[in-house]
């Protein structure tokens, strides 16, 4: 089970990725998380400052940095039975680089939600940093306001979840998604080995319904 999950920020991609990871016992390789971990680390180097500035502005991190990080991560032993790529690849160079590195993708799963719904959702999103658990003030509230259900620790709003940043991120996401889907469509058209199967599912239903729809697709395959 080697898959790419696609979805705009706020589409529920992170929540669904967690379900898939548990069900199929594969690691979720989230480049956003890897980058945020670097920002949180004690290192005071040029790379950390560069990543931090780009993320705050909603810009993509340069391809060479991210490709290196992912290729190294996929060499870890927990990836032997598959992986769930979340937030990667986002550009043609990234897709091309993993193909050249012999990394195979079986499925692309896109969770689709309209931009207007995304903007409504984003303002209520809260995260438990230590575990990666994601809540929403209205759609998936924690049992105690502002606190993680399992640890009781404080939830936070991500720096890049402001409306201005989200508009920028949505526009980048749409452009990059098109480039990526065109790339994989081309592999299929020219019957080049390693083209993935592509599924688009609506992310506008409840979390449970979206999860069941995803499972029914992936279990059947
Ligand atoms: P995410 O949590 O996936 O929305 O990622 C948060 C931010 O990390 C993005 O807005 C980018 O600045 C950066 N980022 C994550 N994944 C990538 C990637 N594959 N390529 C470039 N930048 C990335």
From TrEMBL:
<dbReference type="GO" id="GO:0004017">
    <property type="term" value="F:AMP kinase activity"/>
</dbReference>
<dbReference type="InterPro" id="IPR027417">
    <property type="entry name" value="P-loop_NTPase"/>
</dbReference>
<dbReference type="GO" id="GO:0005524">
    <property type="term" value="F:ATP binding"/>
</dbReference>
<feature type="binding site">
    <location>
        <begin position="59"/>
        <end position="61"/>
    </location>
    <ligand>
        <name>AMP</name>
    </ligand>
</feature>
<dbReference type="InterPro" id="IPR033690">
    <property type="entry name" value="Adenylat_kinase_CS"/>
</dbReference>
<dbReference type="InterPro" id="IPR000850">
    <property type="entry name" value="Adenylat/UMP-CMP_kin"/>
</dbReference>
<feature type="domain" description="Adenylate kinase active site lid">
    <location>
        <begin position="125"/>
        <end position="160"/>
    </location>
</feature>
<comment type="subunit">
    <text>Monomer.</text>
</comment>
<dbReference type="Pfam" id="PF05191">
    <property type="entry name" value="ADK_lid"/>
</dbReference>
<keyword id="KW-0418">Kinase</keyword>
<keyword id="KW-0545">Nucleotide biosynthesis</keyword>
<comment type="pathway">
    <text>Purine metabolism; AMP biosynthesis via salvage pathway; AMP from ADP: step 1/1.</text>
</comment>
<comment type="function">
    <text>Catalyzes the reversible transfer of the terminal phosphate group between ATP and AMP. Plays an important role in cellular energy homeostasis and in adenine nucleotide metabolism.</text>
</comment>
<feature type="binding site">
    <location>
        <position position="94"/>
    </location>
    <ligand>
        <name>AMP</name>
    </ligand>
</feature>
<keyword id="KW-0547">Nucleotide-binding</keyword>
<keyword id="KW-0067">ATP-binding</keyword>
<comment type="similarity">
    <text>Belongs to the adenylate kinase family.</text>
</comment>
<feature type="binding site">
    <location>
        <begin position="134"/>
        <end position="135"/>
    </location>
    <ligand>
        <name>ATP</name>
    </ligand>
</feature>
<feature type="binding site">
    <location>
        <begin position="87"/>
        <end position="90"/>
    </location>
    <ligand>
        <name>AMP</name>
    </ligand>
</feature>
<feature type="binding site">
    <location>
        <position position="158"/>
    </location>
    <ligand>
        <name>AMP</name>
    </ligand>
</feature>
<dbReference type="Pfam" id="PF00406">
    <property type="entry name" value="ADK"/>
</dbReference>
<dbReference type="InterPro" id="IPR006259">
    <property type="entry name" value="Adenyl_kin_sub"/>
</dbReference>
<dbReference type="InterPro" id="IPR007862">
    <property type="entry name" value="Adenylate_kinase_lid-dom"/>
</dbReference>
<keyword id="KW-0963">Cytoplasm</keyword>
<dbReference type="GO" id="GO:0005737">
    <property type="term" value="C:cytoplasm"/>
</dbReference>
<dbReference type="GO" id="GO:0044209">
    <property type="term" value="P:AMP salvage"/>
</dbReference>
<feature type="binding site">
    <location>
        <position position="125"/>
    </location>
    <ligand>
        <name>ATP</name>
    </ligand>
</feature>
<feature type="binding site">
    <location>
        <position position="31"/>
    </location>
    <ligand>
        <name>AMP</name>
    </ligand>
</feature>
<feature type="binding site">
    <location>
        <position position="36"/>
    </location>
    <ligand>
        <name>AMP</name>
    </ligand>
</feature>
<feature type="binding site">
    <location>
        <position position="169"/>
    </location>
    <ligand>
        <name>AMP</name>
    </ligand>
</feature>
<keyword id="KW-0808">Transferase</keyword>
<protein>
    <recommendedName>
        <fullName>Adenylate kinase</fullName>
        <ecNumber>2.7.4.3</ecNumber>
    </recommendedName>
</protein>
<feature type="binding site">
    <location>
        <begin position="10"/>
        <end position="15"/>
    </location>
    <ligand>
        <name>ATP</name>
    </ligand>
</feature>
<feature type="region of interest" description="LID">
    <location>
        <begin position="124"/>
        <end position="161"/>
    </location>
</feature>
<feature type="binding site">
    <location>
        <position position="205"/>
    </location>
    <ligand>
        <name>ATP</name>
    </ligand>
</feature>
